[in-house]
Design goal:
mainly alpha; single chain
Length: 124
């Protein structure tokens, strides 16, 4: 029993250290999200203000105006998220493949052979 207590006191702080180190790893991610997220929300709110005003002028209740505006902002954020996901796929998967293929075709002389309309014997 004494050995177990001694082991627990010796290694009991290890999970806390691991958690602290992992928490420090998330700090740059938070800065990047803050850097990207705030301008996106500014753009979304600027685009949503005219929709809010039109709905208010039409005389709809404020709850419906806020619900419609929130739905539009959510839809626009979803479209932006899908666009960013597609951009990530392009940058990290498609673009390196294209670069490797271009370099390989340049190094090894691979060219697209186009069909020739004229015979090669010099006649027209």
């Amino acid at each position: 029993m004494f050995v177990l207590r001694w082991l627990a006191s010796m290694f009991g702080g290890v999970p806390w250290i691991i958690r602290a180190v992992l928490a420090l790893l998330f700090v740059p991610v938070a800065f990047v999200l803050k850097l990207i997220g705030i301008p996106i929300m500014v753009v979304l709110s600027v685009l949503a203000i005219p929709v809010f005003l039109v709905l208010l002028v039409m005389g709809l209740p404020i709850i419906l105006v806020l619900a419609a505006g929130g739905a539009l902002m959510g839809l626009m954020f979803a479209v932006l998220s899908i666009g960013f996901a597609a951009l990530k796929i392009f940058i990290f998967i498609v673009l390196p493949i294209l670069i490797v293929l271009k370099l390989a075709s340049w190094i090894f002389g691979w060219r697209r052979c186009e069909p020739r309309d004229k015979p090669m014997d010099g006649t027209i």
